[in-house]
Design a protein that fits this description.
Blueprint: H1 2-9, E1 22-24, H2 26-32, E2 36-40, H3 50-59, H4 63-68, E3 70-73, H5 77-89, E4 93-97, H6 103-111, E5 115-118, H7 123-137, E6 140-141, H8 148-164, E7 169-175, H9 180-192, E8 197-203, H10 208-215, H11 238-247, E9 251-254, H12 256-270, H13 276-291, E10 298-303, H14 313-323, E11 327-335, H15 340-348, E12 352-359, E13 365-373, H16 377-390, E14 394-397, H17 402-411, E15 422-430, H18 435-443, E16 448-455, E17 461-469, H19 475-485, E18 489-491, H20 496-503
Parallel strand pairs: 2-10, 3-4, 3-6, 4-5, 7-8, 7-10, 8-9
Antiparallel strand pairs: 1-2, 11-13, 11-14, 12-13, 12-16, 15-17, 15-18, 16-17
């Protein structure tokens, strides 16, 4: 440990890296009833801590090694670190990246002058190809985590944390992919403050370090999930495993929903969009805080990166509420009779409805996919489910159902070719509690609702696609009811997409 502390204190990182702030997370601290801090490595020039280890390794190369050029394999952030460091030192850099790497990271490598080579679907395939190029071209390989100089460079994060927070720290939570950051921080923190816990956090579907620690040897995972691509590593490093086995106080795991909730928490407190790997440690911190309400010091998470692809934001926003246990998803069976929707919405009361999907499928029962935003999901969910069951509604909690969240919610529907006199309306109404019930009250119970699709998008107005079975003789009465309702609406009965996919 002393050798690593010496290497960390002598690391060359500040030629290109910044000393990043340790920001208090005021809103989250209030919710968790204790001080919470975020180490802002997302503020580095490449928006990731990886610049520290990459530059420390490259800066110590001999003139002969620099002339040969460097190569690395990376899912993105280490790649940018190598590209930037090599650019500043006038060294040619080749970066091998999996083809699954987010475009924002590939473009960043090229921006910093690196030669990006896309190869393979996983880090391991890219790594093998980089090693082959290393041998063929005589290049110097810069490992993303399993190298003492890289580990020492990452360890400077720990130096800064202890300088910035001299008060007691109960635990520091570190994202773990290959383990370089965790090994570096733990080497320094455990030397100076052995009472401070250092806890690794991995995605549930890429927990290679946790598996290695449990087996007491490095293991190779069959596959890893790519949502948190910055830590999608099938096998922990040899040197990082040795250090983490000695120094870490444990490794936690976090699923996609918890990571998305962490992204939202970071945005709400410091107004930055962390990438999934960047919010991973905060997801672990929150789980620890909830399991350990009596704490003796601050909790610190590392915001390790902010290289987020913009097209992921919709997925993150939808999963964050479930991950924070603020939204529940239910499958509810109600009678297929006029007025049943209104009665069902009345049972839901003033709870904020986030989603409501239904398509007519027969004359007996209606199956509704409904999302609800709750203050205390654990308590309120139990109360609501019990209430619905007392009223003889069939209820299934699908909040934790991956298939429901990823696919079924978008596929509720189907054709209803035998449904006569159906009118399709696209409507808007003010987005406030009770607005959906007010909309149904305005339509009334004289006609059967045959289709309903609504999703809260956080805007001022809710957008609804609704189908109503209105006999020809009732059209004038129905039109008058819509006018009295006063909500903007468009008749979409002749819409070709509706005719093709929903009418038949």
């Amino acid at each position: 440990m002393i050798d690593y502390v010496r290497k960390i204190l002598n690391a060359r990182v500040y030629d290109v890296a910044l000393q990043t702030p340790l920001d208090p997370m005021v809103r989250l601290a209030r919710r968790l009833d204790g001080p919470v801090f975020l180490k802002r490595e997302d503020l580095q020039p490449i928006f990731s801590f990886k610049i520290r280890g990459a530059h420390n390794r490259i800066a110590q190369l001999s003139d002969e090694a620099r002339a040969a050029g460097v190569i690395c394999a990376s899912a993105g952030n280490h790649a940018q670190g190598v590209a930037l460091s090599a650019n500043r030192l006038g060294i040619e850099a080749t970066i091998v990246m999996p083809v699954t790497t987010p475009a924002i990271k590939v473009e960043a490598v090229r921006y910093w002058g690196g030669n990006a080579v896309l190869y393979g679907d996983t880090f391991d395939e890219a790594h093998a190809h980089a090693r082959q190029l290393e041998r063929e071209r005589g290049l110097i390989f810069v490992h993303p985590y399993d190298d003492p100089d890289v580990i020492a460079g990452q360890g400077t994060v720990g130096v800064e944390i202890l300088h910035q927070h001299p008060d007691p720290i109960e635990a520091i939570f570190v994202p773990v992919g290959g383990g370089g950051l965790a090994a570096g921080i733990a080497s320094y923190v455990k030397f100076l403050r052995p009472e401070t816990k250092v806890i690794g956090v991995e995605p549930t579907d890429a927990a290679s370090m946790k598996a290695a620690l449990e087996a007491d040897e490095r293991v190779v995972l069959d596959r890893v999930g790519l949502f948190a691509d910055g830590v999608a590593v099938r096998q922990a490093g040899e040197e990082t495993f040795r250090l983490c086995r000695q120094l870490l106080d444990g490794v936690m795991v976090a699923d996609t929903d918890a990571i998305c909730a962490g992204i939202k928490d970071i945005f709400e407190d410091v107004r930055v969009l962390a990438e999934p790997a960047g919010a991973l440690s905060l997801a672990g911190l929150k789980a620890y805080a909830q399991a350990n309400p009596r704490r003796s010091g601050s909790l610190i998470a590392i915001s390790s990166g902010a290289n987020m692809n913009f097209d992921r934001l919709r997925h993150v926003a939808e999963r964050a509420e479930v991950g924070e246990a603020r939204e529940i998803l239910l499958a509810v069976t109600i009678p297929e009779v006029p007025g049943s929707y209104r009665r069902f919405i009345q049972v839901l009361g003033n709870r904020a409805i986030t989603e409501f999907n239904y398509r007519y499928a027969g004359s007996s029962d209606a199956h509704v996919f409904v999302g609800l935003k709750l203050g205390d999901a654990t308590r309120e969910k139990a109360e609501l489910v019990a209430q619905l069951e007392r009223l003889s509604y069939g209820v299934i909690d699908i909040s934790a159902d991956e298939t429901a969240k990823l696919h079924v919610r978008y596929m509720v529907g189907g054709r209803a070719p035998t449904l006569d006199d159906e009118i399709i309306l696209r409507c808007e109404f003010p987005e406030r509690p009770g607005a959906l019930l007010g909309f149904l009250d305005g339509i009334g119970t004289d006609w059967n609702i045959t289709l309903f699709h609504y999703r809260n998008h956080g805007a001022d107005y809710g957008r609804v696609l609704v189908g109503v079975q209105v006999p020809q003789g009732d059209r004038a009465k129905f039109d008058a009811r819509l006018v009295a309702l006063g909500y903007p609406h468009e008749d979409e009965t002749d819409n070709p997409a509706y005719r093709l996919f929903l009418r038949g």
